[in-house]
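Teaching soon. Got one?

===
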Amino acid sequence: MTQPAPNVTAPPDAEARRDVPPVICYPTETLPQPDLAFYAAARQGAVKIAEVLARPRDAACFRAPAGHFFRITSVDGPQVGDLNLWNADDLDERFYSGKTRALHGTHLTRGQRMWSSLPHLRPMATITADTLEWYGIDQYGGSVHDVIGTRCDPYTGHLLAGGQYHHCCHSNLTRALSDETGLPLAEAERHVHDVLNVFMCTGFTRGTGQYFMKASPVRPGDYLEFFAEIDLLGALSACPGGDCSAQHSSDTAVCHPLLVEVFAPAPDALEGWRAAQPNGYDGTHGRGPVAGRAG
């Protein structure tokens, strides 16, 4: 028997309820702030020690030791990329896009951080330079470098359109991680996670709240640079949507490569710095001491 539709008539105090002011969920006044001047000084004189190219509709892995810088650059044309980060010694510790979004907002820029998954919850990388910082938030509510999207994947593609598309970012990252670590594809796939959408211009529509994308403002030579707060393994996919001006998971969009470079600072440039430590919560969850943790 069909159930009657619920009563959705607005109550008399509907406007008063809507007018309740918002409260920031995670005030960040006590969040430790990165010392950008320190990072800038350390970056002076740093030398490039590695580079890798993520080819169009493909992905590549890279390693950035703690205390090193890595830069993602658009080299040939407007192109967005999907970035995964892991603890280089423990793939279970990985970038936590949801908590990063809750702490910093929907889009990241210079001075903000990529945080790791629970129970570690520590900074993995700090953004130290962003040549698209000027973009801000446009009239549609769009901005660049988002942590609101997931990654284009073959499962959603099949759900919405059918077919078997293999060069979406999820599959690209899976192949790259498998090749880098020697893990079978199925095992590597379990470690692929929600991304930082580098250079992608996105937001939510005002009327329906839907996730949207628009042509990225990135141009050749634009870059996003990071400081590795722990030993990192990264994977970057050059999205099959190109600049995401029309579609993603596509073999018709114009796509370009993305360059990742890793830079080592001078040996004495990081005096007094140490790699980020795991979160200090004792892990007892109200039930007493946990093995391996203070309590």
